[in-house]
Specification:
Elements: H1 6-10, H2 14-24, H3 44-51, H4 55-68, E1 71-76, E2 84-89, H5 91-95, H6 100-115, H7 123-133, H8 135-138, H9 151-168, E3 171-177, E4 182-188, H10 193-198, H11 200-217, E5 224-231, E6 235-241
Antiparallel strand pairs: 1-2, 3-4, 4-6, 5-6
Helix pairs in contact: 3-4, 7-11, 9-11
C-alpha cells in the first residue's frame, strides 16, 4: 500500500471522518432547518451534540484536524459575552486528499460500507440513500414534484439538480435543446475525478445515483438520463430528456 498523507492517516479514525462529514455537509447558505453555514462551522459543543460525544473528546480530535489543516477555526461573536470558537471544513486542504492514495482509501471505505449489514450494495445505491436522507434540503420551497408540463418547469427541476451537484463540488453549466425537453449539463471540477479514472464503476455509480435519484425526487423519474464521462474537453456530461408533452404557455398563477 502506498504511503498515506498525514491528512489521510488522520481520517482512519471514524470519529474524525464523522466530524469532517458533519462540517462539510453544512449548507452554503442558512436554511430554516439548518441555520449554521459551512463557512461559519460549528462549536465543539455543537459538534458534540450532533455526533453524541463529550466536548472534550471532540476537541481532542478537532485539534488534530486543525494541525493537519483539514479544519480551520474562527472566533465568532454573537454580541454577548466572549466570542466562541467555531470549526469549519477547509475545502482547500480537503482537495489535496484527491490523490490516488486518497482515492484508494475512499474505495476501501465504500467497500466496507457496502459490506455492512443493511448497507447499500452498489455505489449507485449509496448515492440514492444520500439523496433520500437530504430530501428536505434538495427540493426548493414552492417547487412542484409533479412531472414538468412546461419548459420553464423542466428547467427549474434541472436547476435544483445543479444545486445538488454544485453542493458536492461540481461546477456545472447547462444548455437546452428540443424545445426544452433536453438539458445538457456539463460538469467540470469533478470532486472525484481521479477516482472516476481509476475506479469508474464506483465514481460513475455515485454520479448516476446522485443524478437519477435527485430527478426522481423532483418528480422526473421517467426522464431518460445518459452520462458521458470525460467528454467535452475532459468534462463529464449528463443528458436529461423528458418525454412529457409541454403546453405552449407557462402556467399562470
Amino acid at each position: 500500500m502506498s504511503e498515506q498523507t498525514p491528512g489521510m492517516a488522520l481520517l482512519t479514525s471514524p470519529v474524525r471522518r464523522q466530524i469532517l462529514d458533519v462540517l462539510a455537509q453544512l449548507p452554503v447558505q442558512a436554511t430554516p432547518k439548518e441555520p449554521k453555514t459551512r463557512r461559519d462551522g460549528l462549536t465543539a459543543a455543537e459538534l458534540g451534540a450532533r455526533i453524541g460525544l463529550h466536548v472534550t473528546t471532540i476537541r481532542f480530535h478537532v485539534d488534530q484536524l486543525l494541525e493537519a489543516g483539514l479544519v480551520c477555526a474562527n472566533d465568532i461573536s454573537n454580541g454577548v459575552g466572549r466570542p466562541k470558537r467555531h470549526y469549519a471544513a477547509n475545502p482547500g486542504r480537503l482537495a489535496e486528499l484527491n490523490r490516488p492514495d486518497g482515492y484508494h482509501m475512499v474505495a476501501e471505505v465504500l467497500a466496507d460500507a457496502f459490506a455492512a449489514a443493511g448497507g447499500p450494495s452498489t455505489a449507485e445505491e449509496a448515492a440514492e440513500r444520500w439523496v433520500r436522507k437530504h430530501a428536505d434540503e434538495i427540493v426548493p420551497e414552492g417547487l412542484s414534484t409533479a412531472p414538468a408540463r412546461t419548459p420553464g418547469q423542466c428547467l427549474s427541476k434541472v436547476g435544483a439538480l445543479v444545486d445538488v451537484l454544485e453542493a458536492w463540488g461540481y461546477s456545472a453549466t447547462v444548455s437546452t435543446s428540443d424545445e426544452g425537453h433536453t438539458a445538457e449539463i456539463s460538469l467540470r471540477t469533478c470532486p472525484i475525478r481521479e477516482l472516476a479514472a481509476n475506479n469508474p464503476a464506483i465514481a460513475c455509480g455515485l454520479h448516476r445515483g446522485l443524478v437519477c435519484s435527485t430527478l426522481a425526487l423532483l418528480g422526473e423519474e421517467d426522464a431518460d438520463t445518459q452520462l458521458v464521462p470525460f467528454a467535452d474537453g475532459g468534462a463529464c456530461v449528463a443528458h436529461v430528456t423528458t418525454h412529457q408533452s409541454f403546453s405552449n404557455q407557462e402556467a399562470r398563477p
